[in-house]
Amino acid sequence: xxxxxxxxxxxxxxxxxxxxxxxxxxxxxxxxxxxxxxxxxxxxxxxxxxxxxxxxxxxxxxxxxxxxxxxxxxxxxxxxxxxxxxxxxxxxxxxxxxxxxxxxxxxxxxxxxxxxxxxxxxxxxxxxxxxxxxxxxxxxxxxxxxxxxxxxxxxxxxxxxxxxxxxxxxxxxxxxxxxxxxxxxxxxxxxxxxxxxxxxxxxxxxxxxxxxxxxxxxxxxxx
Length: 223
What we know:
By secondary structure, the chain is an alpha+beta fold. The chain has a domain at 15-126 and 184-220. Helices cover 30% and strands 17% of the residues. It has helices at residues 15-24, 46-57, 129-145, 161-182, 211-217; strands spanning 31-34, 60-70, 74-84, 90-91, 102-107, 121-124. Strands 1, 2, 3, 4, 5 and 6 form a six-stranded antiparallel sheet that branches. Helix 3 runs antiparallel to helix 4. The radius of gyration is 18 Å and the shape is globular.
């Protein structure tokens, strides 16, 4: 059997996800949104992409949070913008670093985007203390990378001197904790979320025809 190698689109809204959603936008329910990446666009630059789509084709934006899950270890919310077409159809036009066909999106009517970077919200679902330590390193890293005027900067960040040393120490800590965290991750099985991030379970997605073969090859990109 194989562990999940990275956070994926959840196949269902679990109790842990409900708890996370209630902390962010209590009266909202998450929705599955199809991903149709804009051609030639930069990954994860949702705000500029959506504004460009509105200017060209009309419609409006909806702010909220993309929900991710590392099964058995943590759930995570990433601040995000989707495009609502003039027809009313919701779509995610932002390319991801890994192919994703659907996202689980939590609308947030109270959210405001001013250009300032917004940290992900993470919640451990494992009681192992190494998970909490691992997640805290990302908060420390976010504070460093968005310190001062950098909070409104986008793209590559160049650190020098003591801040570069500080960043290196964070990376070393993450690299040390990562193996301990990922050994806790659930195994891929017929009834767990498909690693392709379709929002479906393996049995009803890539494993529909041959579950054993799919699980054996899921992480090799041969599905």
